[in-house]
Design goal:
Layout (H helix, E strand, L loop, with lengths): L1 E5 L3 H12 L3 E6 L16 E2 L1 H4 L5 H7 L2 H8 L8 E4 L5 H10 L4 E4 H7 L9 E5 L3 E2 L2 H14 L4 E3 L12 E4 L13 E11 L9 E3 L6 E5 L4 E5 L3 E2 L8 H14 L7 E12 L6 E5 L2 E5 L5 H32 L1
Helix pairs in contact: 1-7, 1-9, 4-9
Length: 333
C-alpha cells in the first residue's frame, strides 16, 4: 500500500510516522517551504494534559489523550513527565474548586506543597492541584524530531508542494491540512489562539503551571534556556493577523500575577494562529471516497494526534486486508 499524507503539521507528521512504522510506504506533502512555517502546531503549548483538559472538554479527550503519554516519550525523548500544577490567587479560590469538580487524577496541595514542587512560587499561593501523570514537550523540537525520524525511515517529505489529490500517485490519501481543508469539510471553523514567549533568569519552573482566573485563564510552559511560552486565548475567528495589544496586555498581566519576575522578562516572540475545530470541538476522521480526512484537533493537537493517527492506520490497513481478501476470492473463483 502506498499512502500520501497531505499536511506536515503535528497531525500529518504523527500519522505518517505511525503508518511508516507499520510497514506502509508513505510520502508526505507540505505546501509551506519549511517545517512549521504555516502550521498552527508551531504555536502550540505542547501540554500533554488529558485530565486538566477535562475541565472544558468531553471525556473522550481524556480517554484518547492518555495514549499520548505513552506515544510521545517513545518518539521524542525530550518529553518531560513532570505533571501539571494548577493554581489560583486567593481571591479566585472558587475557580480552583470549580476546576477540581470537573477533573480527576489530581492531588490537592497546600502552600507548602506548592513550594515543594516550585520553589520560586513559595509563599505566593495557599493551595493548588497537582496532576502528577501529565507531561509536556517543546512542539517545535518535537516536530523536528518526527521529521528526522521520517527521513531516517525513508519517508520523503516534499516541501513547497500544493498537493493535488487527483494527481497523487498513491493507493490512499490522508488529508491533514487543518483549516485549509474547509474546501472539503464545510463544518470546520477557526479558533484563534495567541501566545508569547518570554525569557528571564529570575524565575525557574519545572512543569507547566495553569493560573485560573474568571476572565483570563493562563498557562505558562517552561522551555529551555530561561524561555517560557505563555498562552490561553481562544477567540472565535479565522483571523491570522498579529497579536492584538489587548491580548498581549492580558497575557502579560496574568503572567505578572503568577510571579512579578515576568514583569522584567524579555519578550522574545508574539504569535497568533488559527486552530481547526468542528462544532463539538472533537476531532474526526471522515471517509471521502479514497481519501481519509483527519481534522478538527482544536487545542488538542499534540494530545490527541497519536490516538487519531492510530485510528487512521487501523482503517487503512483494515481496508487493505479486505481488498486483498476480495482479490484472493476473485482469483480462486
Amino acid at each position: 500500500m502506498r499512502v500520501a499524507v497531505i499536511g506536515a503539521g503535528v497531525a500529518g507528521l504523527v500519522t505518517a510516522l505511525e503508518l511508516a512504522e507499520r510497514g506502509v510506504a508513505v510520502e508526505l506533502f507540505e505546501r509551506a517551504a519549511t517545517l512549521g512555517q504555516q502550521a498552527c502546531s508551531w504555536a502550540a503549548g505542547g501540554m500533554l494534559a488529558p485530565w486538566c483538559e477535562r475541565e472544558s472538554a468531553e471525556e473522550a479527550v481524556v480517554t484518547l489523550g492518555r495514549q499520548a503519554l505513552d506515544w510521545w516519550p517513545r518518539h521524542y525523548p525530550g518529553t518531560l513527565a513532570r505533571g501539571t500544577l494548577v493554581l489560583a490567587p486567593a481571591r479566585d479560590a472558587g475557580e480552583l474548586t470549580r476546576f477540581a469538580a470537573r477533573t480527576s487524577g489530581f492531588e490537592r496541595l497546600d502552600g507548602d506543597g506548592v513550594a515543594a514542587l516550585e520553589l520560586d512560587l513559595a509563599g505566593r499561593f495557599r493551595q493548588g492541584l497537582f496532576f502528577a501523570q501529565e507531561a509536556h514537550l517543546d512542539p517545535r523540537l518535537a516536530m523536528a524530531a518526527l521529521a528526522q525520524a521520517l527521513q531516517a525511515a525513508g519517508v520523503p517529505i516534499h516541501y513547497g508542494v500544493e498537493a493535488d489529490e487527483t494527481a497523487l500517485d498513491a493507493d490512499r490519501i490522508v488529508d491533514c491540512r487543518g483549516l485549509s481543508a474547509r474546501d472539503r469539510l464545510s463544518a470546520l471553523r477557526g479558533v484563534r489562539g495567541e501566545m508569547l514567549v518570554l525569557r528571564t533568569d529570575e524565575i525557574s519552573l519545572n512543569r507547566p503551571v495553569r493560573l485560573l482566573h474568571p476572565r483570563i485563564p493562563l498557562y505558562v510552559v517552561p522551555r529551555s534556556d530561561g524561555h517560557f511560552m505563555i498562552g490561553a486565548t481562544m477567540i472565535e475567528s479565522d483571523d491570522r493577523s498579529r497579536v492584538s495589544a489587548r491580548s498581549a496586555i492580558e497575557l502579560l498581566s496574568a503572567a505578572y500575577a503568577l510571579h512579578p519576575a515576568f514583569g522584567e522578562a524579555e519578550i522574545v516572540e508574539l504569535r497568533a494562529d488559527v486552530r481547526p475545530a468542528f462544532p463539538d470541538n472533537l476531532p474526526r476522521i471522515v471517509e471521502d471516497g479514497g481519501v481519509l480526512r483527519f481534522n478538527g484537533l482544536f487545542r488538542h493537537g499534540f494530545l490527541l494526534s497519536p490516538a487519531l493517527a492510530r485510528q487512521v492506520a487501523d482503517r487503512l490497513l483494515a481496508s487493505k486486508e479486505l481488498s486483498d481478501a476480495d482479490h484472493r476470492q476473485r482469483r480462486h473463483a
